[in-house]
Amino acid sequence: MLKKIFIKTFGCQMNEYDSNRIFDTVKKIGFERTEKYVDANCYLLNTCHIRDKAKEKVYHEIGRVKKIFREKKKPIVIVAGCVAQAENQEMLKREPYIDIVIGPQSYHKINEAILNHSKNKKKEEETEFDTISKFNYLSQIKNKDSKVSSFLTIQEGCDKFCHFCVVPYTRGPEYSRPFDQIINETKELIQSGAKEIILLGQNVNAYSYNEEGKEYRLSDLLIKLDSFDKLERIRYTTSHPKDMTDDLINVYKTSSKLMPLVHLPVQSGSNKILNLMNRKHTIEEYVVIYEKLKKINPKIEFSSDFIIGYPEEDKQDFKMTMELIEKIKFINSYSFIFSPRPGTVAADLKLVDHKESKQRLEIIQEKLFNNQIKKNKSLENKILNVLVENKMKDGIKLFGRTEFMTSVIFDGNIENIGKIVQVEIISSNQNSLFGKLTESSKKKVA
Ligand code: SAM
Ligand code: SF4
Ligand code: F3S
Questions:
Q1: In CATH, which superfamily holds the domain spanning 133-377?
Q2: Which fold has domain 3-131?
Q3: pTM exceeds cut of 0.70
Q4: Mean pLDDT over residues 363-391, rounded?
Q5: What is the number of the ligand 2 atom nearest to the C-alpha of 159?
Q6: What values do phi and psi take at 301, rounded to 5?
């Protein structure tokens, strides 16, 4: 019988990377990937625990799968990711439909878990923090991702323990992959057609790998990647302001491939709140980073994450966040109401009135979205360099991204996929730009 796995992914880019690597792994025991639930005899849900109702969302999704397979043979049901790590055994007790629970640092054991379960029908649970073995194992399996823009995890886990955040508990302590392992994987991705690589880590700029007395940092990786001819663009995410060191900032002086969008979550514009969150930096320090980068290249733009209604956030604190947005004019930012997470320091703090938090969120989002709309509008009639990623679902238009990650939808030719082309922007909305290929780009293809 053909073995088919259906993988559904919630959460951050690191989960997306993991899902692809899980697939590279299960291929070894004969699985093909399917995009249809009903065709699957193995169903894997890669979960996220960052905010509210994460757990409920998982049980809801498993309920859906149960219904789909009511009249069919039950697939092997695997829950992976951060909820699996946080809940482990509990999940198997609460939902007998689940067969295997596997945490993010145990994916190297997934084939064994599937084979064991197929043989003896016993429930399997793997939630050890075993990051070194995970990456040593994965490095022996070729990364088969063939996307124009590919993710590459270089660092896992977090030692910062911001008071609101579950990541240090679900992903474990900080771990940086060996420098050479990352370079080899970069080469594999380039060979498979990657033109852009997005280096990933929960704290990507805390990357630090020591070998023979030398420390390799994110800056070293960026410089090395910059030297690969066939690679056009390099990005990294997510960074912490505390680790935005000068060696990293200085790469912006020399690299032509490092994109001019810096995603640097600030969470709040108030030092009081940053301190209560245990963020380990001040707004003044954040602004210094911004100014240093702007001095190197005035084109550089910032994007951020904001948490609204953190316990003890008052009107003055919120005003400071609004002022910071006015100053930095972030593009493409994310904002969420604080969500108490079990096991974190902030879990039991007194919440800001929900109605008040909702109002603040609406105000901040209006400002952030307006910045985005204005920014996109200002690009109309301009010619931009776009890295073409794929065809749109309609099969006619092409999809690509600007240097600032903004989506561009335009008429083009499939030969443009994987290339940087020039697109004249005709119209825009909050999230996307729409345009047409310039005559010179058309000629290059012809
Ligand atoms: N390491 C990154 C940093 O230091 O900013 C953040 C990684 S976290 C996976 C992504 C974002 O989720 C955070 O920047 C924060 O805005 C949001 N987040 C995390 N915990 C949250 C919570 N308890 N409530 C609301 N938003 C949260
Ligand atoms: Fe979470 Fe980022 Fe803070 Fe780490 S640095 S605890 S990942 S918000
Ligand atoms: Fe979510 Fe885990 Fe990523 S909690 S945001 S999937 S690190």
A1: tm_1862 like domain (3.80.30.20)
A2: Rossmann fold (3.40.50)
A3: yes
A4: 96
A5: 4
A6: -120, 155
